[in-house]
Write a sequence for this structure.
């Protein structure tokens, strides 16, 4: 089974394409139309064109590599078969009503599995929101608005399409794109261990955010994570509510502790929420790996700094003593007015704030620099100092921002461009630093 | 000591006002200029005007009720004295270098305390970012950008000014304003138990978000919370890093468990992070009190719904069986295709999604309705159905949104206007529902 037609097709067929707004086959076309290569809306009763693309009667009339199947569950086996006959290499099946529904659905799923095998077709789904790869302008999904998702460095692999969609829109809402979102759904023949190695080799993907509800192929998934050199963050859900989970992606119920142990042993970070999943992935994607777990905390406001210190302390993160040399440098800048141990508190934003970060960042006892500063327009954020520091020292710097959102946006972007990951709330910045400590050498 | 001059002054003096951008006395003027009454920039060496206001040489030349003191710590006692002589009733002291610095600072603080007593002046601070009351156009702070903060229904009372500022900007970033932010700092004579009763009586304040680092007057603070009928959420920080905390607001170190027990007994919700503090406050401000702790969860996407169910289950929240009547109504709508127990899963957004919420919301077993739906433009959110439901049934409804941010903004605002609190991430919606369960009758 070749995955190329799923990840990097030359042409796309949308089977069941429709002109009617709100229909699955119309929503899928609205996303597929962004693709740079040929896009074929397939519908025997289609007349004229949709989004500028002429309808074709059959997938057999196309040279499509990838088919988006926008037909109901019971019609799917025949459609996959037609795809196979037409030489299509990969198919995305959006419809539900398969193994997760039981009964006839389980039989239907077995049919498409068998047809997939016969014709060597990579099937994503069924029961999925599809996949998107913004840097290839490939939006293979019915989700309205996905055509505007930007490229980013975190890829999302979600057992639940809905979770993948939620994660994608959360990144988008916060100003980030994605290196790709893959909703696996019922995983008829495309599973975690198929997708993860491809993403591990993908130069656009710098971290993998994994959502898992439960799988009997857990060992294969773990093995894939273990083999990956790209950082992986895992969110395991579906720990309770057995019946509900079963009705979703037909996932078996398995003990959370087993997943936690196995994924942690394989080098993944376990996240407890959507926000943690994305924040951990983002900081790992953007930052160099920390050489050790020691955090140097620099804050321009003591109160939020204390909250962050609490949070890190609860997670067992260490604040090392600063070297004599650093303390002397800090004394020269701060004149002893504020707290100059670790955390270092400047009391207020000041023109020398960047120098304070620089001093802590160059301290041999510090592996990870965590900063908190409320933005003041007359000072801005210390871009130049951060540029110099990150050029000289290969340590992760996490910057926690606050202030008037529009005013700080440009400086925030400049910091991201330097590889300084930025976060919004004290606990989110602290969490990101704790992830770097956990994954240090 | 009258608090009126602090909360509702007729005129303001900015002592140490300056024309020089970036100076404290300029930043304070930039905020104070929004005030509807007279604003007096006071500076003996000031010439001409600043932000359109003529300098005056002395506070004695004004009829100010409230003075913003933008002078260094050592100059503060004299300034407070002049304020007293001039009949000023309240003063905000931004400068640090008082009890938190020890030594001469402790003496300075004792001096302003004694002068405040002699002249019956309400002093906010020292060592504070000040206070803002947007619905009175009162921005008594040096923090740049505060003049653009909007009115809202959550008031923030923070021992640390920096935490108060962070909380204010976090609400602003997410599209909310504040009913007021009060940074207490060193609390020379304005403490938690002074501010909380005023806010409890304030019709604009529907919830109070409290940040506390530690206080020897803990019993007074607890008593004020206990007496308040307005919901209170508390974030206690400064549990570790004794020396650093002491250097901040001169707060004593006390055991977290003691605070948790006492505040919980007094009816407050304990939050663990900035985001929880604000989300809990927001949902309590916007929602009717729940009659009981039972959550009915309606989701248009099973995966995020499962994550929310996990989260609620971990927090011990109960999902009741739905009544026979509700299940029949749901069967008619959903035709048995998806999971129709509790959680109720519609599998995808659908035109009848509002009816599904309605059915669950009217179920006698359900006290709190929690919804998750990814926005689709062709359907929108079910505003009309929510309007009918909230008009007929006095139960809290929490709506968790996802999707293209700009596209859903209008519908989100419409829901907020109906008293339906909205949240962004699955765990945040679930957390809000858990807070309503915890505070139910």
């Amino acid at each position: 089974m070749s995955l190329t037609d799923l990840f990097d097709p030359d042409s796309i067929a949308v089977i069941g394409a429709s002109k009617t707004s709100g229909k699955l086959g119309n929503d899928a076309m609205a996303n597929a139309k962004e693709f740079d290569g040929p896009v074929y809306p397939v519908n025997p009763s289609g007349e004229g064109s949709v989004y500028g693309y002429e309808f074709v009667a059959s997938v057999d009339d196309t040279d499509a590599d990838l088919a988006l199947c926008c037909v109901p569950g019971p019609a799917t086996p025949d459609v996959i078969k037609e795809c196979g006959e037409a030489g299509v290499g990969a198919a995305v099946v959006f419809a539900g009503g398969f193994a997760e529904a039981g009964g006839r659905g389980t039989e239907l799923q077995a049919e498409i599995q068998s047809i997939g095998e016969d014709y060597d077709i990579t099937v994503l789904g069924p029961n999925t929101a599809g996949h998107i790869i913004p840097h290839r302008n490939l939006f293979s999904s019915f989700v309205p608005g996905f055509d505007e998702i930007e490229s980013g460095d975190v890829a999302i692999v979600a057992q639940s399409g809905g979770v993948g969609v939620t994660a994608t829109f959360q990144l988008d809402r916060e100003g980030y794109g994605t290196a790709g979102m893959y909703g696996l759904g019922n995983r008829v023949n495309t599973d975690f261990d198929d997708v993860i190695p491809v993403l591990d080799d993908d130069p656009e993907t710098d971290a993998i955010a994994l959502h898992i509800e439960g799988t009997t192929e857990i060992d294969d998934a773990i093995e894939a994570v273990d083999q990956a050199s790209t950082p992986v963050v895992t969110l395991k859900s579906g720990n309770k509510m057995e019946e509900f989970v079963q009705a979703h992606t037909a996932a078996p119920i398995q003990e959370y502790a087993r997943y936690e142990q196995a994924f942690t042993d394989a080098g993944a970070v376990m996240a407890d929420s959507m926000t943690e999943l994305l924040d951990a992935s983002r900081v790992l994607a953007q930052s160099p790996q920390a050489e050790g777990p020691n955090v140097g905390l620099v804050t321009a406001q003591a109160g939020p700094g204390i909250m962050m210190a609490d949070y890190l302390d609860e997670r067992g993160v260490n604040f090392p003593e600063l070297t004599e040399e650093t303390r002397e440098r800090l004394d020269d800048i701060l004149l002893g007015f504020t707290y100059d141990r670790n955390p270092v508190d400047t009391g207020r934003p000041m023109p020398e704030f960047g120098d304070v970060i620089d001093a802590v960042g160059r301290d041999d006892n510090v592996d990870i620099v965590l900063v908190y500063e409320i933005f003041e327009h007359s000072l801005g954020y210390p871009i130049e100092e951060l540029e110099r520091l990150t050029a000289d020292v290969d340590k992760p710097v996490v910057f926690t921002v606050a202030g008037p959102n529009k005013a700080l946006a440009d400086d925030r972007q400049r910091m991201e461009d330097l590889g300084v990951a930025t976060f919004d709330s004290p606990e989110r910045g602290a969490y990101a630093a704790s992830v770097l400590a956990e994954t240090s050498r």
Remarks:
- The first strand of chain B starts at residue 12 and ends at 15.
- The mean pLDDT of chain B is 94.
- Residues 330 and 356 of chain B are 6 Å apart (CA to CA).
